[in-house]
Write a structure and sequence with these properties.
It catalyses: GTP + H2O = GDP + phosphate + H(+). Part of the signal recognition particle protein translocation system, which is composed of SRP and FtsY. SRP is a ribonucleoprotein composed of Ffh and a 4.5S RNA molecule. Residues 13-91 form the Signal recognition particle SRP54 helical bundle domain. Belongs to the GTP-binding SRP family. FtsY subfamily. This is Signal recognition particle receptor FtsY. Strands 3-2-4-1-5-6-7-8 form an eight-stranded mixed sheet, sandwiched between helices. The protein is of the alpha/beta class. A hairpin with a 7-residue loop joins strand 7 and strand 8 (293-294). The chain has helices at residues 8-16, 18-28, 38-50, 55-69, 76-91, 119-132, 147-160, 173-186, 203-220, 238-250, 269-277, 298-306; strands spanning 107-112, 137-142, 164-166, 191-196, 227-233, 255-259, 281-285, 293-294. The chain is elongated, with a radius of gyration of 21 Å. The longest helix is centred in the C-terminal third of the chain and has 18 residues, at 203-220. The structure holds guanosine-5'-triphosphate (GTP). Residues 113, 115-121, 149, 152, 259-260, 262-263, 285-288, 292 line the site of guanosine-5'-triphosphate.
Length: 312
Amino acid sequence: MTDTSGNSWRDRLFGGLKRTSDRLGENLSGLFKAALDDQTLDEIEEALIMTDLGPAMAARVRDRLAAGRYNREITEDYLREIIAEEIEKVLAPVAKPLEIEAFPRPQVILVIGVNGSGKTTTIAKLANNFLEQDYGVMLAAGDTFRAAAIGQLKVWADRLGVPIVAGKEGGDAAGIVFDAVKQATATGIDVLIVDTAGRLQNKTELMDELAKVRRVLGRLNPAAPHDVVLVLDATTGQNALNQIEVFKETAQVTGLVMTKLDGTARGGVLVAAAEKYRLPIHAIGVGEKIEDLRPFDPADMAKAIAGTAYAR
Ligand SMILES: Nc1nc2c(ncn2[C@@H]2O[C@H](COP(=O)(O)OP(=O)(O)OP(=O)(O)O)[C@@H](O)[C@H]2O)c(=O)[nH]1
């Protein structure tokens, strides 16, 4: 994906994650006065958990410090470097942009997530990224539960100049998806991005609806949906992990997008999610603008979260 904005994506990434790295600094403050002992190691571990990085990451950093630096003094900058290195190890295997590779076309991407997670904006941002790569894009308004969701997606389709298949509020989502795949196939569209209803409160209904969409898709193209992307709002912190837990089996999630990393001190949850679930993370959102969603570089991302001297 080309970044036409020069360095500004990197600036937005580091700027957006500053609240997270500042929070890490607050949690670590006052821990570097003496040689590293068990108590300080405990406190460092606790600080990392409080920064939402997850117990596995906290233990990993603790073990590394205990093995190499026990009884010696360390600085905050040194610790941040270690944290960045450990985060990068976890993020590197899961940082995977969404690639368009399905034959026959179109590649069908179902986008799921609870209301307010940034799903609609993410669909628009993904569409924009694919357009930048010269792919033909179509949207399908499969969230038929709310008129506002259909309206909002139409506005984005207009703005981006891409076709959209939408029905009425209360319409049959599977029917819309069926029409969309037929139209996309007939018109040589490369990628069809499908919005879906994000009701978490009723798992059975959600499962039934997604199963129906899948059945209908399978009739037209047995490989579809090619991707099931779960959109998560980073500001919800640990709750984002619960959502993965629920959706991963129910919806057969194939990858994640995490939004709103700019609006929160809880960005560490991206690392906890990567370490616990090991699902591909396709992109991150660091703002409301269309260019604020990008695949991420694991090293930059790790530095931005850890707030290493290089990043600050
Ligand atoms: N700061 C910030 N805001 C974001 C980001 N992504 C989305 N938003 C905002 O979050 C709000 C909700 O986004 P939507 O895309 O409408 O989310 P949705 O999940 O479709 O929500 P509903 O339409 O309410 O179901 C909007 O105001 C977006 O502009 C992001 O990465 N950063």
